[in-house]
């Protein structure tokens, strides 16, 4: 019983100076609350003989008052302020593991806590004291029992602090936290108990730094949402101060403990101090437009004043402290990196043992990676484990090392080992694979280039009607076009300007490709022609070549090589443009601007909060090891050192924010047409298009939730136009975060509710479902490299080429030698395995931290639960579709179900699950 009272706070309140109001006042306040759409919350406990339920007034503060102050049928005139006690329940999240230094500092803090170097809190009212013209503040109170609870092993530890306030205090709207310890701690939430309005919640979810590192007190606001114009007088100055702190002054090198959000260009991808071959052009600016990234403030390199100095692994790169991975996410990512280290070391050693093992000798060599593991294959397990100077953690897992060094079987070959060889599977993946956003309806035949013919040669395609007419089921080409039967994946213009440089790289060979598909009566696609282009040269007239489906053994191997080149190009565009640029990089400016311009009290910040989680951290890690010079992308993908320039070219020439919504994108690509008779106002021209089918369900569920939310806070357009924080957020996102494209005429305006709904829905869609569709299938589809090679090392030989005889003598060996080497393959597999993994702390769409208190607006909490239920229904519908035999692009013998947009998932590589944010 005593424990129950302690948890509920009743023992404290029974000792406090609480007295009740009259029943008439309660009824009056209750009726007023109903008239203002305010809501009831949990009752506060009062002395036993005077228990009552008190209605919470959301926007108007209510303090505990004495019934002696109530005069029947008279105004409320306080004669004397009544003092009473309230309690803070503070939830701190512990780390599961601490290093030695952290343990020592923790013990020191426990000692000094007892002598006053503690964690101190102070309540700040929503009201202003009429005498001082400043916010009303409570006394400063220290957290109790910090040292006593220091050895508690629970993930969350609850502390208390006690304040004395009086009846004029009002309702607390903010709280300051002063950490006088040496060590930072993670503050999850604070709940204030004892006010007549009921508990007041402060969802914090932030690291609180030591006063010695950051002298200012941390400010946290309650969960009550306020538009800037509605900010209570007591919180206005604090609201502005906190935003000013988050913006910083744009100067100096950022410390890892800082919480400052600012912009910079991508000037840290190269490392010219290592040598000229590691120098890379800066991305961002008039010369090479690109989105902005989070500023770190590091100094320039020694050899190039315009390049920012590098921070190499394992030294972390700066992102604001609250953007860094939480412990379980960090552990998942680190374990994945350990796997990558082991996977990459072994092939390196194996490659150094003999000169003939750089290539796979047979497809069975690839199978061994999943069946036996590399160490067993080369017979070096004991020797490697004995000689490698790896950390102790590796020796501890020596017994399970076989599992670490053996790759999981990718899903693409789990149901049908030879599925990747089939034309129908090659085509199916254009609709329901890991990159289903490149395919377009072919509207003009032959297709034309938009490149400058003076530089890149004739715009005319080599495709002719005779190449495809025999595969059109008796239709003419014009009929097929008019009946929406022809589709194309066109990588001609994005690759051709870079081909001379790519093909000059060691071990890289590529074409600019176009692939034509025909839509069969069954609703599936079949490839009917592949065009391969090289830059025109004076010495060769063979710059363009068309291949069609095979008719014999020789043409079959040539066709397989052509498909592999198409897949290699697809892998590059997928990773550099559709995945990295369109989700990771393009969203970062919106997130930076949100932290800089939208107060944590702002309703739109509260809406966006779960969709911003981890984006800055994963992008910083990408700059450190994935998209940097000599990083994974350059090592494993066809464009090599020109990879990010291809990404920047796509940003300049084809990226448009107004086309990033799913409906707009489908219409732009000709995959859908507007149709008001359809449920979502769109008609898909390929009905069995799994990405679009499932994506539209999620898109409109997000849109409905956002519209409900926006209409609740902005009943008219004038409120949107006059919302200074909102307008500054969007202005800065465009004009600073996307400064190089700020003058484009396609940027949406922000003048009414429809504008805001469209902008927010697009951002949430990109951060959640779009990213999920493009990310979590990378290992399931790409982990078997012949299905989707990230690079190619040989062109396709023609009859008079010297290599043609080699190809004819052993076409399988030639095919395998054109794929990535053993080292490239295993490195790529390790990375995409890591990138396809859900961490245990993943938060999926329809979920959010502290679901019942993330906002103090009960109506929006209820609406969010409705959104969550809608997402649950979508999952059931996706499951139903995946068992429908009429949907042949997601159901059939050896066909993978399309689950990349199924909302929920467990941890690991699951090929499903839609996290709220770009978190990996």
From TrEMBL:
Residues 289-310 are annotated as: Disordered. It comes from the Eukaryota. It holds the Pfam family PLAT. Its cofactor is Fe cation. GO terms for cellular component: chloroplast. Keywords: Chloroplast, Cytoplasm, Dioxygenase, Fatty acid biosynthesis, Fatty acid metabolism, Iron, Lipid biosynthesis, Lipid metabolism, Metal-binding, Oxidoreductase, Oxylipin biosynthesis, Plastid, Transit peptide. GO terms for molecular function: iron ion binding; linoleate 13S-lipoxygenase activity. Residues 225-920 form the Lipoxygenase domain. Residues 100-222 form the PLAT domain. Signal peptide: none annotated. Its EC number is 1.13.11.-. The keyword Metal-binding applies. It is found in: Cytoplasm; Plastid, Chloroplast. Belongs to the lipoxygenase family. This is Lipoxygenase. It comes from Erythroxylum novogranatense.
């Amino acid at each position: 019983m005593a424990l129950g009272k302690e948890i509920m706070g009743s023992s404290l309140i029974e000792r406090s100076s609480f007295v009740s109001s009259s029943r008439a006042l309660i009824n009056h306040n209750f009726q007023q609350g109903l008239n203002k759409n305010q809501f009831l919350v949990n009752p506060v406990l009062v002395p036993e003989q005077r228990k009552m339920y008190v209605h919470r007034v959301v926007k108007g503060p209510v303090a505990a008052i004495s019934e002696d102050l109530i005069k029947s049928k008279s105004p409320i005139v306080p004669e004397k302020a009544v003092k009473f006690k309230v309690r803070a329940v503070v939830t701190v999240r512990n780390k599961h593991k601490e290093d030695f230094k952290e343990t020592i500092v923790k013990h020191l803090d426990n000692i000094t806590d007892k002598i006053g170097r503690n964690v101190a809190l102070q309540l700040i009212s929503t009201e202003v004291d009429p005498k001082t013209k400043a916010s009303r503040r409570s006394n400063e109170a220290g957290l109790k029992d910090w040292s006593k609870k220091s050895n508690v092993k629970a993930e969350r530890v609850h502390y208390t602090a006690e304040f004395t306030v009086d009846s004029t205090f009002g309702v607390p709207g903010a709280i300051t936290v002063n950490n006088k310890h040496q060590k930072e701690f993670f503050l999850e939430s604070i709940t204030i108990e004892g006010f007549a309005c009921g508990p007041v919640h402060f969802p914090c979810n932030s690291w609180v730094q030591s006063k010695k590192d950051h002298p200012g007190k941390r400010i946290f606001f309650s969960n009550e949402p306020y538009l800037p114009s509605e900010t209570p007088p007591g919180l206005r100055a604090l609201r502005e101060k906190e935003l000013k702190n988050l913006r910083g002054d744009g100067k100096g090198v950022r410390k890892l403990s800082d919480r400052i959000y600012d912009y910079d260009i991508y000037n840290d991808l190269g490392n010219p101090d290592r040598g000229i071959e590691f120098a890379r052009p800066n991305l961002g600016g008039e010369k090479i437009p690109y989105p902005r990234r989070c500023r770190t403030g590091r100094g320039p390199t020694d050899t190039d004043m315009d390049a920012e100095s590098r921070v190499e692994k394992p030294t972390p790169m700066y992102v604001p402290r609250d953007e860094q991975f939480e412990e379980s996410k960090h552990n998942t990512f680190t374990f994945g990196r350990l796997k990558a280290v082991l996977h990459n070391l072994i092939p390196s050693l194996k490659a150094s043992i003999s000169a003939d093992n750089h290539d796979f000798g047979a497809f069975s060599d690839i199978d061994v990676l999943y069946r036996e593991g590399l160490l067993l294959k080369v017979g070096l397990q004991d020797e490697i484990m004995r000689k490698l100077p790896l950390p102790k953690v590796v020796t501890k897992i020596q017994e399970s090392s076989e599992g670490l060094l053996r790759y999981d079987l990718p899903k693409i070959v789990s149901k049908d080992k030879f599925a990747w060889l089939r034309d129908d599977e090659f085509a199916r993946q254009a609709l329901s694979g890991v990159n289903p956003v490149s395919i377009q309806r072919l509207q003009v035949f032959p297709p034309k280039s938009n490149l400058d013919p003076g530089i890149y040669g004739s715009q005319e395609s080599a495709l002719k009607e005779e190449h495809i007419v025999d595969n059109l089921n008796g239709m003419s080409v014009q009929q097929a076009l008019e009946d929406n039967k022809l589709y194309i994946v066109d990588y001609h213009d994005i690759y051709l300007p870079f081909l001379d440089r790519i093909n000059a790289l060691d071990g890289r060979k590529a074409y600019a490709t176009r692939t034509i598909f025909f839509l069969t009566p069954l609703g599936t696609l079949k490839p009917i022609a592949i065009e391969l282009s090289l830059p025109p040269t004076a010495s060769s007239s063979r710059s363009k070549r068309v291949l069609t489906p095979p008719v014999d053994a020789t043409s079959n191997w040539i066709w397989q090589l052509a498909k592999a080149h198409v897949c290699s190009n697809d892998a590059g565009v997928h990773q550099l443009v559709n995945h990295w640029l369109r989700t990771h990089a393009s969203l970062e400016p919106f997130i930076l601007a949100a932290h800089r311009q939208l107060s944590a009290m702002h309703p739109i910040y509260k809406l966006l909060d779960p969709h911003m989680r981890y984006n800055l951290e994963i992008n910083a890690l990408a700059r450190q090891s994935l998209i940097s010079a000599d990083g994974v992308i350059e090592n494993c993908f066809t464009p090599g050192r020109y990879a990010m320039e291809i990404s920047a070219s796509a940003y300049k020439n084809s990226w448009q924010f107004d086309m990033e919504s799913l409906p707009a994108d489908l219409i732009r690509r000709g995959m859908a047409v507007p149709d008001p008779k359809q449920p979502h106002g769109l008609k898909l021209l390929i009905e069995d298009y799994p990405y679009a089918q499932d994506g539209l369900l999620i898109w409109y569920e997000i849109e409905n939730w956002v519209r409900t939310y926006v209409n609740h806070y902005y009943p008219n357009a004038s409120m949107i136009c006059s919302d200074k924080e909102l307008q500054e957020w969007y202005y800065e996102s465009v004009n600073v975060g996307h400064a190089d494209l700020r003058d484009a005429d396609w940027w949406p305006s922000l003048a009414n509710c429809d504008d805001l709904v469209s902008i927010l829905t697009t951002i949430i869609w990109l951060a959640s479902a779009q990213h999920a569709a493009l990310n979590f299938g990378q290992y399931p589809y790409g982990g078997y490299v012949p299905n989707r090679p990230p690079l190619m090392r040989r062109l396709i030989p023609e009859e008079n080429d010297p290599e043609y005889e080699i190809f004819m003598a052993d076409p399988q060996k030639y095919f395998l030698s054109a794929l990535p080497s053993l080292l490239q393959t295993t490195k790529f597999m390790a990375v995409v395995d890591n990138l396809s993994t859900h961490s245990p702390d993943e938060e999926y769409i329809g979920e959010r931290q502290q679901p019942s208190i993330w906002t103090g607006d009960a109506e929006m909490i209820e609406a969010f639960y409705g959104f969550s239920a809608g997402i649950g229904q979508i999952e059931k519908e996706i499951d139903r579709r995946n068992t429908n035999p009429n949907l042949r692009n997601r159901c059939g013998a050896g066909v993978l179900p399309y689950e990349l947009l199924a909302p929920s998932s467990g941890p690991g590589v699951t090929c499903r699950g839609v996290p709220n944010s770009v978190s990996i």
